[in-house]
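seq:
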Amino acid sequence: MLKMTDSFEILQNWVLNSGLVIVDKNSKNLGGVCSFFDEKKNEYGFIYPEITGYFLSSLRFLNSLNPNSDYQQLANNSSKWLMQIEKEHGGIIQGIGSDISKQKLVYSFDTGICAKGFLDSFELTQNSEYKEYARKLLDWLIDEAIENDGTIKPLKDLSSNTFQTSKDVWYKQKGCLHIKLAMPFLHLYKLTNEKNLLETADLICSNYKKLQNADGSFSLHFGSNIIHLHTMCYALEGLIYAYSVTKNIEYLESVERGLEWCSKNIEHSDGSIPLWFNAKHQSAKTSYHIAQIIRIMILVDSLHKSQKFEKDIKLLNSFLISLQASSKNNVIEGGFYEEYFKSFLGWKKRLRLNSWGSMFALQALKWDISTPFEQQIEFLY
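struct:
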C-alpha cells in the first residue's frame, strides 16, 4: 500500500494533469472541470459548473501548501469560464454536454458552491471581480431562493422562470445538504464584516434542529427517515465552518453528535460506512462521502487537540485508499473511483473516476489532527 504522502502526490497530479480540467486555450470551455472519467468507455463525463467551483477552492488549498503561479492561471481560467456560463445561461446550470445543458435548471446548492469557489479564487488571485461575482450569486440566493425560515428552494427552471421541487431525485428537494450554503455567506462576511451575511448564514444553519435526529444522524429531507451520508456530511461541513466563525457551541455539538453516529456505523471488516440508511436503494460505499467524514473527524480532533477519532480515521482511510486508481495510464493513475456497488457477485468497483470525491480526498489525505484547527478549517470546501 502507498504511503499517505505518495497517495496525495499522485492524486494531486491526477486532479491537475489528467485531462479532467480543460486546458486547451482554443476551447470555449477552457477552465471547465469534468464530472468524471469513465474508464470502461474511455471518456470524460459532462462539464460540471458545481465541481468547477470545488476546483477553485482546491486550487487555493493546494497553493497554501506549495505556492505556485500556475494555480493562479488555472483559477483565472476556471473563474472566467463560470462567469461565462452564468451570463450565457442566466444562472449556474447543472452541466455542459450531452442533453444536460438543455434542461435550463439552476440549482441553489451549485450556485452556493460556485460562490465559495469565486471567493477562494479571489483569495488566491486577489482579483476583486471574483469577489463581486460571488456577491452576485449570493444576492440571487437571498433574493430568490432562501425562505424566511432559512430553508432553500432547490432549483429554478429558467424556461418557465419558476422554482420547483421533485421527489424523483434527492437533490431536487429541500434538505440537509443546503446547510452547507452557510459557508460562502460566512466567507464573504469574514472579508467584509457585513452583518446581513452573518444573519443569513445563521438562519440557514438553524435548520439543523429540524433535520438532526436524536441519535445524531441527519434526515435527508424534512420529515424523512432516510439518511444519505453524502448530504449529511454537507450539513456537518456547513456547521463546523459556521462554528469556526460564530463560535456558536450548538453548531459544534451538532457536528460531534453526527460524527459519533458515523463512528458507531463504521464496518470494521473493511473500514467503510454505507452511503444510504433506511432507503430502498442498494447501498453503495463511495469515495466521496468517506473522504468527507475523514475531513470532519480530523477537524474536530484538531480543534480539541484530541485523538478521539484517530482509530476511526485510520479505518476510513484504509477503505478510501482501496478506491484509488493504480495504472500506467496518466489519465487514470491516482484518481479515486466513485464507489463500490453491490452486485449479484458481491461488492464491485465502479470504474468511474470521480472528480469531487478526488478533490475531497486531497484534504482527507493531507490534513492531520496535529495541525491547528484554524489552519485547516480556513480551506474547507
